Amino acid sequence: MYKANELELNKLLSVVLERDASDLHLMASEPPIIRVDSALLRLDNYQVLTNDGINDLLNVLLSPEQKKMFEEQMHIDFSYAFKDRIRFRVNAYRQKGVIGIAMRVIPNHIKTIEELNLPGILKKFIERKQGLVLVVGPTGHGKSTALAAMINEINNTRSEHILTIEDPIEFVFTPNKSMISQRELYLDTPSFAGALKAALREDINVVLVGEIRDWESIAAALTIAETGHLVFATLHTNDAAQSIDRVVDVFPAAQQQQIRGQLSSVLVGVVSLRLLPKIGGGRTPAYEILVSNHAVRNVIRDNKLYEISNIINTSLEEGMVPLDKTLALLVKQGQVEFEEAKNYVLDNEYFLSLVS
What we know:
Low-confidence stretches: none
CATH topology of the largest domain: Rossmann fold
CATH superfamily of the largest domain: P-loop containing nucleotide triphosphate hydrolases
Largest sheet: 7 strands, mixed
Radius of gyration: 21 Å
CATH class of the largest domain: Alpha Beta
Order of helices and strands: HEEEHHEEEHEHEEHEHEHHEEHHHHH
Shape: globular
């Protein structure tokens, strides 16, 4: 029975690779569903899934320890290697009392910053020896891929000890000039905050935090950045101003001014990403880039984050980029449909002035 279920799973994962899909969804009362270039497609030539059938597939994916954790928490994040060909980031969960599984492809090849069509200013960020770089945006819009490119650039060009703390480990790095330690939440450490605090005793130079979720992990990340280390972290926020506000807002009101001061001194930059379907197939990034300068540091300290957008718009020569400018450029270059770009616009009037 187990072998049959494994064969069925392998068949589905092979379809994901053949169709160049980014995700696979398994839900009761539906056929398998894949995501290709942002669009969901039902595999109607497959039979409708049952809860028992999905549970059988989940038993192939999970170890006994993970199965126990899923039964206790009713959801679990983990990674799964498919025949050494490719890895998936997996989330199993319950909805309406039955099991759902979402599997995201993690490419084996770590693309470069240039291959991802990301701006060269990112190389300036990774040249820094200390500070905090935030990579933000909605789920599924390329944050992990961009971070992997940045970390691998350091790996290939500098002799450093790089530590990643992830839930779960996504891209697996091959050490080159750098030494790389990768810790997975629950497998190698009970918490992001605990792993970050321990990092200071592990002779590290660069830290990648999969996500800073609470005040403890944010406080630890700020301390590491203050003490001569380069820290990369992600947030599920929409733009630079919202990201800075989120970092500060998780702290009690009495601490927020102190955190603003810390953040203003360590922030290197914020990269906000969106992935848009390209005309003709594939996806391409749009981005907002905030580079920390004297003006940015002042508005963070003074809690005047409403000025961030204007600073970005008037500091293009420093490498800053408004999201709406990259969206407009993609439309004018014929890479992205106008209506698709409009879905991500922050300032509609500014965007329209750029595409007209």
